[in-house]
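quick one before i forget lol
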Amino acid sequence: MLAAGASRRLGTPKQLVRLGAETLLERTVRVAREADLNPILGVVPTDLLIEPSPTGMIRVFNQNSVEGIASSIRAGLRALASDGATFPGVVILACDQPAVTSGHLRELANGGSDIVASAYGGRKGVPAYFPSTVFQALLALHGDLGARDLLLNARAILLTRGELDIDTIEDLEKARKLYVT
């Protein structure tokens, strides 16, 4: 889970912003747990105090978070491989997309040997499933574009309201109207 962004436009760490009774980080970890994703690695910046870590999340510090999203992808993959375990694939998701459901994540995780993206707002994006055959390509990413090029020809599954990510106060207010009961 990518949660190392600087939240410049929001003006406060979005990972810790509350959407109902949970922070965005807690909400994302809960949804990933409900989808039976395991392990759940939360890639966070070194200067963000998150105590305690959400239940079920293994904290991974991104020493290079100023580079952008690619550095978080690399940090997560390296941490995943650090104990020598192998995985058939990974689901990469961001902590600021409140429309993500456990059912959507389970559907992505069944991608097998294919890259499977989420479709919203006329484009493909995360959350997305990446099979282990593309791990080297993910490790070679640099900058703030993430895996966008890898998703261009990927199969995609519709994520209703997936275009809403919380980057501004207006986005947060919209999310609260849609997702807080």
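fyi The longest helix spans residues 69-81.
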